[in-house]
Amino acid sequence: MTEATLPTGDPRDDEAAGAEIARLAQIMARLRDPSTGCPWDIEQTFATIAPYTIEEAHEVADAIARQAWDELPGELGDLLLQVVFHAQMAREAGMFGLTEVAAAINGKLISRHPHVFGDESRDKSAAQQVKDWEAIKATERAAKAERGVLDGVALGLPSLTRAVKLQNRAARVGFDWPQTAQVLDKLQEEAAELVAARDSADKAHLTEEMGDLLFVVANLARHLDIDPEEALRSANAKFTRRFASIEAALAARGKRPEDSDLAEMDALWDAAKAAERA
Predict the structure, then answer these.
(1) By residue range, what is the domain housing residue 161?
(2) What count of other Cβ atoms lies within 10 Å of the Cβ of residue 228?
(3) pTM of the predicted structure, to 2 decimals
(4) 174: CATH
(5) How far is residue 86's CA from residue 54's CA, in Å, rounded to a whole number?
(6) In this structure, is residue 146 part of a structural domain?
(7) Which member of 71, 174, 221, 244 has the lowest number of beta carbons within 10 Å of its beta carbon?
(8) Considering only CA atoms, which of 167, 172, 162, 169 is closest in space to residue 183?
């Protein structure tokens, strides 16, 4: 299949989507108009908008995790706005526009899938396709003069995710523990170092040891083929759910958490955990 023979959906849907995206770009341009736009939008920069971009991506992930499919279009729209916002600011600066943004991802998708858009065979495993994908990305990094193994791993990623990506890069050149048992040994070592630093008055040293421990935890997750961000999100959701059960049980007793004590709340926590496992 070549780019010229790309399949499309209903042409009316394609046209409608294109029209709405064009309308969004026009709305964003109006909001940024120095004379008639919104003062807040006009004041924004790439740096001030970037945190919102990350936040909107997390809200998309949250809607998916909750299977809130009725909310997902709105959340994806919020994320799309971030792309259009950045593109509009770039257009104003004479750098690029929304067309170049779309062209960049279109070209990347086609070049990274030669087994779909080129002559390569599709008769290979998903694991082999991942290896091929990484080889293509390595070629792209070389073309951008990213010579170091760890070059190009985005600084703005969530820290656990970035840790895994850094570790994966290092592992591709052989810098990795071959067995999970060795990672567990390192985890115990780092935990002991954190305990040793616990009573230190040196907050910077304690922070460093905590970072080392979290980095090894991320590495352990990688060796177990677990996404540490997903695991922590699940743990957060579980904590939120069980603490809500504590609050509900206390409310039934005419109390609030601040009116209780650790022993009572811990017993209610155990009850909530047992109820979930029943």
Answers:
(1) 153-226
(2) 21
(3) 0.63
(4) 1.10.287.1080
(5) 13
(6) no
(7) 174
(8) 167
